[in-house]
Amino acid sequence: MAGRKFFVGGNWKMNGNKSEIQSIVNSLNAAPLNDQTDIVVSPPAVYLEYTRGIISPKIRTAGQNSYKVAKGAFTGDVSPQMLIDVGADWVILGHSERRNLFGENDQLIAEKTAFALESGLGVIACIGEKLEEREAGRTEEVVFQQLAAIAAKVSSWDKVVVAYEPVWAIGTGKTATPQQAQEVHAQLRNWLKEKVSESVASSTRIIYGGSVTGGTCKELANEADIDGFLVGGASLKPEFIDIINARS
Ligand SMILES: O=C(CO)COP(=O)(O)O
Fold it and tell me: Is the keyword Isomerase assigned to this protein (predicted)?
């Protein structure tokens, strides 16, 4: 907690069309939203501009990915400059689906993070262990390695939010318990303190993602080192409003 502004992101992943987005946006625009919370939604890239055009200015938008250079022969990719051009303020990088389905490694994610920050975007930097890694007692080692790769390329942490998303909790309905999440968040904050600085450790938001719902969000939000959420499935549903307001 410690003065860190609560941050809730909705990662829509590869879901939605104009009509579905219109109805999600209508419900968000009409809802009472806690103004002590930073709220970001991340539609598929092709719908970023459409979403920006209809959503309340209180809600910021994020790309789900961006490449490490501004333009060029990189078929199928988008740059931070393009995301900014269509009104995005943030980008999600290092999501486990990018790592595991599209083969992105720590090095590439770190380079993309550096370039997105340099270009003026905020970065939601995702890390998290797989089930077999947790079961082998390697959670700390894995998340520290992922964070270290990113930290090596970050010179200013003001616009970085770290998202801890255990892979076994993503899309599975198995939310980490508040204690499981808090334990890793505290370890990550301690890592930042030791390897970066005390002030970065105390000011950087560390948010949790993995099957967060309207039912699980309040208890998680009570933990000292959980500064918000990155929400997948539930961000497409009305309960996203309860998650945004979890600290109210
Ligand atoms: O991957 C996630 C957010 O980036 C979490 O997804 P779910 O909330 O659907 O588990």
Answer: yes
ipTM value of the model? Answer: 0.99
Cα(210) to centroid(ligand 1), Å: 5
Annotation says 95 is catalytic: yes
- Residue ranges of the chain whose pLDDT lies below 70: 1-2
From residue 208, give the alpha-carbon distance in Å to each of 67, 185, 247: 24, 8, 14
Residues 130, 94: Cα–Cα separation, whole Å: 14
Q: What is the pLDDT of residues 159-189, one digit of tens each?
A: 999 999 999 999 999 999 999 999 999 999 9
Query: What is the rounded CA–CA span in Å between residue 146 and residue 236?
Result: 28
Determine the atom of ligand 1 nearest the C-alpha atom of 97.
Answer: 1
Whether 62 is covered by a domain: the verdict is: yes
Whole domain around residue 139: which residue ranges? Answer: 6-244
User: 1 in a domain, yes or no?
Assistant: no
Residues 104, 129, 165, 223: which is the catalytic one?
165
CATH number at residue 77: 3.20.20.70
